[in-house]
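INFO batch 0412 | record 1 of 1 | parsing
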Amino acid sequence: PPVTGKVVVLVHGLGRSRKFMNPIANHLRENSDYTIVNVDYPSTRAGIDSHAAGLASVMSNLDDEITEINFVAHSLGSLVVRHYLADATQDGKPLDPRIKRFVMLGPPNQGAALARMLNRVPLYNVALRGTGKQLAVDFDALSTHMGTPPCEFAIIAGGKSDNSGYNPLIAGDDDRIIRVEETKLAGARDYRLLELPHTSLARDDVPLAMTLQFLRAGHFTTDDQRQPLK
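INFO prediction complete | emitting tokens
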């Protein structure tokens, strides 16, 4: 049916489907007046540029009656949104003025050490095709197509707040899939590290509540407690 008012576009991560984002969708529906657009895409079958083009197609079909657009993305989905935003504003094109805020949950904003390790396993590249290689050895090339989001954005990372994290194969703190340092992106209006593994960032009550708070107010708790990244 036609969509009006304020919208939140949800984008899942690698190897998932839009069902994975249902906890976020349900939380937002039950606690706000946002309309939810839960996007599905074949995350393992193409590169991030192709997924961003698919998201652009979804965006182009949103109704003119929509007054506000926000994004919430988990893991790889954050890179898809970043790529879409960069494509939408390339060559000096203005950003759609309805796009307001963007929350990233466990994003591999600096690539993924685990992907680089798995890149040595032939089955990894066969199973994940272009996406897996982009997260590993081709991330520098990919990053040239993903600038800083031209809207207010915030990041929630997972980890143990120590030097070991959840995954003994990854050096430093991590959420089992992404290192804490890999989630960071300069320009974030707010940032939080929660003691949660990767998948829980899209399901646990705490990050869900923080996500809604940022969409509404531009901060996770209060404005004077924001933790911006510079």
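INFO post-check: The radius of gyration is 17 Å.
INFO record closed
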